[in-house]
User: What shape does this take?
Amino acid sequence: MSIIEVRDVKKTYPLGKVEVHAVKGVSFSIEKGDFISIAGPSGSGKSTILNMIGLIDKPSAGEVLIEDRPTSGLSDKELTRLRHEVLGFIFQSFNLIPVLNVWENIEFPLLLGRTKVSQAEKKEWIDWLIAEVGLGDWKTHKPNELSGGQRQRVAIARALVTKPGIVLADEPTANLDSSTGEQIIELMKKINRELNTTFIFSTHDAKIVDVADHIIRLKDGLIVENRRLNGADSMDQVKE
Amino acid sequence: MKFIIPRIALRNLSRQKKRSFLLGGAIAFGIMIVTLINGFAGAFIENVSENFSYLMAGHVFVQGAEKTASGKRLSVIRDDSIIFSALRDSGLDYEFATKTSEVSASLYFEGKTIRQTLTGLDLATNLFLRERVVLRQGSWDTIGPDSIILSEKIASRLNVLPGDRITASFQTITGQNNIADFTLAAISVDSSIIGSTMSYVDLAYINEAIGLKSGEYMALGFMLRDLKAAEPFAARLYTSMAGMGIHLFERSAGEEGTATTPFQAMMRAQRTEDWEGSRYSVYTIDDIVSQAKQIVVALDGASLVILLVLFAIVMIGINNTFRMVMYERIKEIGTMRALGVQRKEIKSLFLNEALFLAIGGAVSGIVLALIAMSLLSLIDFGMNTPAFMIMKNGHLSFFVPPLRAVFNVVIIAILTLLAAYFPAKAAAKMEPAVALRTAK
Ligand SMILES: Nc1ncnc2c1ncn2[C@@H]1O[C@H](COP(=O)(O)OP(=O)(O)OP(=O)(O)O)[C@@H](O)[C@H]1O
Ligand SMILES: [Mg+2]
Assistant: This one.
C-alpha cells in the first residue's frame, strides 16, 4: 500500500499573459518508510511537487492521494486538518516562530487542532525529541540564539512532534554548510529508521541524493528517473 | 487552541517595542483627553450646584408670589408660619434657614456708581453668613439697621471705607423709584466661597425700602447637610404644604416632548397664570442649575466626537501598521498554515494583537488621566477666578463615571478591531504556498 500516490499531476502557473508549465504530468507512488530524494536542476519543479504533496498547493490537473485518500475535493479547512494530522514540514530557511523558544516551537503543532495527549506524555515526548535532535541544553533559547544547523534540528523535532506518517523537506540543507547539511540528513535518516517515518526531501546536492533509498529525478517538469535503491523492491525506469 | 494564539499575539507586540509603544501611546493619549473631559463633566453639575447653594444660601427654596390687580407679579412671603408648620409636620431637618429679599440697585458714592444686587437677610442673627463670610475690614459688632457689607472688589471700585455713607436707588415692589442710604459696616474678603459678587444688607431695612412689611420677605432658603438631600427634602416639603391646602405651583410640570425643564415650566406658570392671594413655589438648587446639565451633555458629546476623530487617525495608523506587519510576517503565516493553523486562527492572531494593543493603550490612558486629574486638582486657583463656579473650593475636581470609562474602552476596542480586520482577513486568505514562496 502506497502512503502517497501522485496520479498524472500537472501544475500551471499564470505568469502575466503566459502560462508556466511547472509540472507537466507526473505519476509516482511512495511507500511507507521510504527515504526519498526529489532531485533535479533548478526550476525543474521539485518545490512545486513537494507543495502539492504537502497539500499547501493544488494541482492544476491530476490527483494526489494521501494514505489512499484523494485530496482534490477537500476544502481549505479539511486540507489544513489533514496537513496537521499526517504531514510534517521542514523548510529550507528553518521557519521557526521567532517569539517561541525551542521547546515551545516544538510543542506548537500539538497545541493546534484536537490532539489529545496528557501533559506528562507530551512533555516526555518533546523531551525525547529534543534529546534525539541533540538540543537538550537549548530548550529555552529563542531561534535567533541558535545556529542554522541547530535551528534545522528544532524544525525536525517540530515536524515529528505530531507523529506524522510523512515528513516533507524542501532543500533542508540549502542554507547550511555541507558538513552540517550531511549531519541533518543523517539525523533524518536515523529517525526514518527508528520511527519508520516517510521522508521526502528535495536537494541539488549529489552527495545527499546518495543517502536516499528512492530517487525521483525531475527535468523541466517531468520525471526523468524514478529508482529504488539498496535492494528496494521495484525499479521503474523512465519512459521518455 | 489552548491559548497559543493569544500568547503569540502578546509576544508579537513586544517584538516591535517602539511601534507598539507609539500606537499604544496614541490610543492612550486619546483616551486620556477624553477621560479628562468626562471627568470634568462628571463633577461639573455637583460643583456648580454646591457653589450656587453657597451663593444663594440654601439647597431648597420656598418663594411666595402674588399677582396685583394690574397683573404685576410680586415676590413675597407674607406669613411664613404655615411653611414652618408644614416643615414641622414632615419632620424635616436642616442646618440653616435664611429669609431673603433681593433688589437690583445702583450704588452711588462720591461720583462713582455701580450696579449691584442687594441681598437682604437678617444681618444681626444670620449664622450662615457669619460662618462663611470672612471680613477684611469692619466687624460684625458694628452691624446696625442700615448696614451694608460689600466685597473688597466692589468696595474698591466705589472707593469706600467702613463708615462711609452709600446711596442706593432702586424700585419698590410696586414699581416706584426709591432711594435709601446705607452705612458700609464691613468689607468681606473676596476669596470667601461667597465670592466677590454679593452685597448684603439688613432684611428689615431693605424690606421697608422696597415696600414690604416687617415679617415679610421674598424667599426662604434651607441649607441642608448634604446637597443630595435637597430633592427628597423639597418633595416632602411640597407634599406637606400641599396637604395643608397651601396654593402651590406644580413642581413637575415639564411639558412632554419639549426642552423645557420643570423649573422653567414653573417660572412660566408664574408669569402667565392668574391667581388670588399668595401662591408658593418650592424648588431646589438642582432645578436652578438644571440648564447646566445641558453643558454636561454637550461636553460628553464633544468628548465622543474627539474620541472618534482621534481614533479615526489612530485607526489609519493601525490599519497601515497591520498591513505592514502582514508582509513582515508572511513567512510565519505560511509556516503556521503549513503546520495546521486554520485561516480563522491566523485572523484571530492579528485581531488578538489589535485587541491587546487597544486595551493596553486604553487602560494606560485612563491611568494617565487619573494621574493628571489628581495633579490638576492640587492647583489652587483661589476664589477670585471667574471660573470658581465650576470648581470645588477653588480647585478643579473630577469624577469619571465608571460606565463611561468602560464605554470608552469598548469603543476603542471595537474601532481598533475594525482597523485591523481587513489586514487580518487578507493575512488569513493568503495561500500557504504563496506565503512561503514570497518570503525568502
Ligand atoms: N508562483 C509561480 N508563478 C510562476 N511561475 C512559478 C511559480 N512557482 C514556480 N514557478 C516556475 O515553475 C517552475 C518550477 O519551479 P519550482 O520552484 O518548482 O522549481 P525547483 O525545482 O524547486 O527549483 P529550485 O531548485 O530553484 O528550487 C520554474 O520555472 C518556476 O519559475
Ligand atoms: Mg525549489
